[in-house]
Write a structure and sequence with these properties.
About 45% of the residues are buried. The protein has two domains: about 200 residues, Periplasmic binding protein-like II (D-Maltodextrin-Binding Protein, domain 2); about 100 residues, Periplasmic binding protein-like II (D-Maltodextrin-Binding Protein, domain 2, 3-Layer(aba) Sandwich), CATH 3.40.190. It starts with 8 loop residues before the first helix and ends in a 9-residue tail after the last strand. The longest helix has 17 residues. Strands 1, 4, 5, 6, 7, 8, 9, 10, 11 and 12 form a ten-stranded mixed sheet that branches. It contains twelve helices and twelve strands. It is of the alpha/beta class and about 325 residues long.
Length: about 325
């Protein structure tokens, strides 16, 4: 991939997140907790989501022969979650369905249960790729190829009303903080704890819904979480216990979320990049992002292993 010009952190943060900070959050719907997924019929109506023989023919021979693309995901609303009927829905489900149309394969999308299982699912060759809200970083790129398909950042979530007056990472010292196991956010909290006079009490939990539930029920004081998930959860409260609140002015570690493919599978990687860029150019990608209220997180160009272009913290 070609290099990306360095840009200031302040410029990138504003370009990506000023819409959210200004109060344009997520739209309400008839059923706020469970928006409907884009159906196959809806996907086929989007410009650019059409069978594209050149891209389909470039897919790995084994996938073409099977006619099936095996995709791993985990639950991080609105990136991916279950509808009331148990169907996987969200940005990733919609993008995966569109990829299936363009690449002329049946997409089998499976919830692997936790974010910590995402990378192993590719390294073990259990799945062909992941379509999951996993943060790109240089360490991840040493293990797998990362297709950077949307922006995200990290923020803090507390009980609604923020009764502890948390304003930043320093205010988490001595507090209990829940994070998903094996994630970028877990490493962030561990690093922050080393700077505390009283260490952070880190509570690692496999599944994102259970992380959020730990804060709702008072088991944890806060969670350090992806910005997209946190903003969505603030507007679409689910689960038992007290409501949650993202701290929208806290935007840390601005970077990408990525889809993962194996290092030895460049044919699949390049076919997916081509299909996603076709969706970006046609406007289909932006339509999907806006449907889930995350238009400000849309990228203009699909890149691979581009984490180092992001501003350093």
């Amino acid at each position: 991939m070609t290099g990306t010009p360095k840009i200031s952190k302040a410029s990138l943060v504003c370009a990506v997140f000023c819409t959210f900070a200004a109060g344009t959050m997520l739209p309400a719907s008839a059923d706020e907790s469970k928006p409907a997924a884009i159906t196959e019929v809806d996907i086929l109506k989007l410009a650019g989501v059409v069978a594209t023989p050149a891209l389909a023919d470039s897919m790995p021979a084994a996938i073409k022969a099977a006619g099936v693309l095996k995709v791993a995901t985990d639950l991080t609303p609105p990136i991916s979650f279950h509808s009331d009927e148990g169907t996987l829905v969200g940005i990733d489900a919609d993008l995966a369905a569109a990829l299936g149309v363009i690449l002329q394969v049946k997409v089998q999308m499976t919830d692997v249960g936790s974010g910590a299982a995402i990378v192993p699912s590719i390294l073990s060759k259990r799945f062909d790729m992941t379509v999951s809200g996993i943060n790109d970083d240089p360490e991840l790129e040493k293990q797998v190829d990362v297709i950077d398909y949307m922006f995200d950042a990290t923020t803090i979530m507390t009980i609604k009303g923020n009764p502890l007056g948390i304003k930043g990472m320093a205010d988490l010292c001595g507090r209990s903080v829940a994070v998903p196991v094996g994630t970028f956010q877990e490493r962030m909290v561990e690093a922050a704890s080393t700077r505390c006079a009283t260490p952070i009490k880190l509570l690692t939990i496999p599944k994102m819904p259970d992380v959020l539930q730990a804060v709702r029920t008072g088991r944890a004081d806060a969670t350090v979480n992806g910005y997209a998930t946190s903003v969505y959860t603030t507007e679409h409260q689910t689960g038992n216990g007290k409501g949650l609140q993202a701290l929208p002015d806290v935007r840390l570690a601005v970077g990408y979320l990525g889809m993962l493919t194996a290092k030895n599978n460049p044919q699949l990687r390049d076919a997916v990049v081509g299909a996603l860029q076709q969706m970006v150019d046609s406007g289909a990608y932006e339509t999907i992002m806006k449907k889930w209220g995350l238009g400000p997180l849309a990228v203009k160009t699909i890149k691979v292993n581009d984490a180092t272009s992001m501003p350093a913290e």
